[in-house]
Structure prediction request, 120 residues.
Amino acid sequence: MTDERLSLWNVHNVNIRTNNHLEGWHNRLNRKAGKKHNGFYELLELLISEQGVMDTLIQQVLSGNVTAGDLRRVNRVYAQKQRQVAQYTGEYNNGTRTLEQFLAALMYITPEPILMPPSK
Prediction:
């Protein structure tokens, strides 16, 4: 890969992860739909409703009543792990942690176990 194209793929220190935001929006839209296969007009009504919600949120942010950060619901455990990663990254970037120490610290930030439903 050439150096010019590397920046397109490197996501180090990038705050916005579009895929996560899009997945979250898509999940919310699916929950609002209430069923797997909607007709065209049902989908159209759902999208118009979603546009109204987004317009309201945008107006709230622009008016200064809320900030964009207030609009996100974040899992408490996930937020704590994100803070730890940010702390370790900052320590590595300012030179107080070596690469080995940085990776060792990250190694202990474990994901939550996925609970599988019982087999039938």
Summary: The chain has five helices and no strands. The mean pLDDT is 79. The radius of gyration is 20 Å.
